[in-house]
What we know:
Elements: H1 3-22, E1 39-44, E2 47-48, E3 52-54, E4 60-61, H2 63-75, E5 78-83, H3 89-94, E6 100-101, H4 109-112, E7 115-117, E8 122-124, E9 126-131, E10 148-151, H5 155-164, E11 171-174, H6 177-185, E12 191-195, H7 196-205, E13 211-214, E14 222-224, E15 227-229, H8 233-248, H9 251-260
Parallel strand pairs: 1-5, 1-6, 10-11, 10-12
Antiparallel strand pairs: 2-3, 3-4, 6-15, 7-15, 8-14, 9-12, 9-13
Helix pairs in contact: 2-8, 2-9
Amino acid sequence: MSKFFKQVVPVLALVATLSACGKKDEPVAQAPAAPATKVYLVGVESAYAPFSAENEQKNVVGFDIDVMKALAQKIGIEVKFVPTPFEGFFNFLAQGDRDLLISAITITDERKQTVDFSEPYFEATQLIAVPANDAKVQKFDDLKTLKVGVQSATSGDEIVQQLLGKNNPNIKRLDSTPLALKELETGGVDAVVADDAVVKNYITNNPSSKLRTVSDAGFPKEYYGIAVRKGNTELLNKVNKGMAELKADGTFDKISEKYFGAKK
């Protein structure tokens, strides 16, 4: 090998190495990421059968759940049900921790100050439950001197306050209506006032409870609505439009019949 060749070869190798190091890979085109689908968090009570309650698999089921699923499909949104204590229900919504609330929520003027309600979708009233062997209670006024169980922060709580007084120690507030009715079974209270469908459902499914119901013509009619954050007009309009379509195409009536039987 000549001296010249020995000198040139290393130089050429160095040039080739530097060229290779300086060559940049061509960028690979990336497909634009699909926007994440918003999942609407729906606050529901987990002990309010037949409207919403946990089953043995810890899934929330019931009339309101089926209605919301059908509504979500109708208006094209994805929802996730989140068990939420009713006391504080509306705070979760106002703080942005929930997007919607459904669980037999009575529309009231007081609640309208902090949330927006859909058009009413269900009519209800209060109902009194007492032991089957108690013949003294025939009307709401008969509860004036008795110890009455209610679910805290519900319309049943409010209506009993009107009769007994807000701070009356004879009002026993519990976390759920089933707990209040269980308290009645064990003699912890003399009566319970709560939403009619919930009381009837409990007694039907707990025949050993030995409870009877007392209605009162003085109880006002109540109307349930779906709650959205105050000022969320876009979502509220979607909910109202979807609910109207569910009622128009018969879907709502089918769900209602499943839980409450055919209309009389």
